[in-house]
């Protein structure tokens, strides 16, 4: 059996895809998740998709802030590294309930890091976000750009990045990789796992998906007066399987013999900018569904154009995104059409072997 990885938030959207890739790459995986924004069904499907390697997956339904429960997991297993996804991520909610976000994201992370240090597990991959670039002065964004945050969610990402840099500064035994994700979309090509947001989706593609399956009447386009090719916002959409593979590359870097990793940061994106209208058109083509649009004003806190410089990850992680927006939309629609209610209706759940 390969190295043992603890994955926090592993039942969630990016976590579940990463757990599958880890199992397929022969890692042994323990997931910690409170299922606040996810379903255990995702992990059951991951185990099935992984075939024999599914045996190497265990699940612990606990909250990261439950220090005693976390200790018990570290008592029972010696982990080689941790991938830390667990956190709340809705920008609007973070503005309304900042303490909820600081409590969950910051305190959860501190308890995790303290527990790791107590058990001598000092290798970490953390989910940061392109949100830390704010409205960048130029694109593509490189990892040395100035950082800022415009809302409590973004501030938790920035604070955790700073905490990681500080703990590495205080103890050089830590090896830490901060991954700044651009816009993850799509689903596993099998259509058995994908994104299943609770309530009204905040992000573009989950909303488009719900319009396509008839759960919502139309997509509201937030702003068509930006200085972009068609006036709508431009982002760097990345297939979630590419993103998951980026985590495998990061974990492998942590285990590379010889030199220490230190505390490093990498963008995970494709380096390409796509507008809202281009993304909608690609999804319409993939699904054969018309997405009705309602034009509206700009969303507060949105920026015009963000896309990644990918050269650092390509060079140092030996990783590059493989998929384009066609594949992203194809796989998103495959997941949506097979699971129009996400993991919500167990009687309708599908079996990967059928
Ligand atoms: P998600 O909500 O699907 O997954 C997060 C998981 O963490 C959920 O399963 C949730 O139940 C769990 N969780 C939250 N708080 C917890 C706690 N205190 N204890 C235990 N489990 C807890 O979100 P995702 O899209 O998979 O995102 C994963 C990470 O990546 C998050 O940290 C998010 O901020 C970051 N990120 C996401 C995006 C994106 O667009 N999806 C972009 C940039 C960064
Ligand atoms: C948003 C968050 C960001 C977070 C990221 C991933 C804001 C201001 N930013 O980024 O902090 O890291 O999600 O969770 O919330 N759009 C529409 N209609 C919609 C939804 C989105 O037109 O219903 C547009 C947006 O204006 C934007 C693009 O689609 O131009 C992408 O939006 P979204 O998917 O929310 O991602 P970000 O804005 O990049």
UniProtKB/TrEMBL annotation:
Q: Which CDD domains match?
A: UDP_G4E_1_SDR_e (cd05247)
Please name the pathway.
Carbohydrate metabolism; galactose metabolism
According to its UniProt record, the EC number is 5.1.3.-
Question: What GO cellular-component annotations does this UniProt entry give?
Answer: cytosol
Tell me which InterPro entries the record gives: NAD(P)-bd_dom, UDP_G4E
Tell me the ranges covered by the NAD(P)-binding domain, including all copies.
Answer: 6-331
Q: What is catalyzed by this enzyme? A: UDP-alpha-D-glucose = UDP-alpha-D-galactose
Names of the cofactor(s) = NAD(+)
Top EC class, one word: isomerase
Q: Which UniProt keywords apply?
A: Carbohydrate metabolism, Isomerase, NAD
MF terms in GO: UDP-glucose 4-epimerase activity
GO BP field: galactose metabolic process
Pfam families assigned: GDP_Man_Dehyd
What NCBIfam families is this protein classified in? galE, PRK10675.1
Q: What does this protein do?
A: Catalyzes the interconversion between UDP-glucose and UDP-galactose.
Membership in a protein family? Belongs to the NAD(P)-dependent epimerase/dehydratase family.
Q: Name it.
A: UDP-glucose 4-epimerase
This chain's source organism reads Zingiber officinale
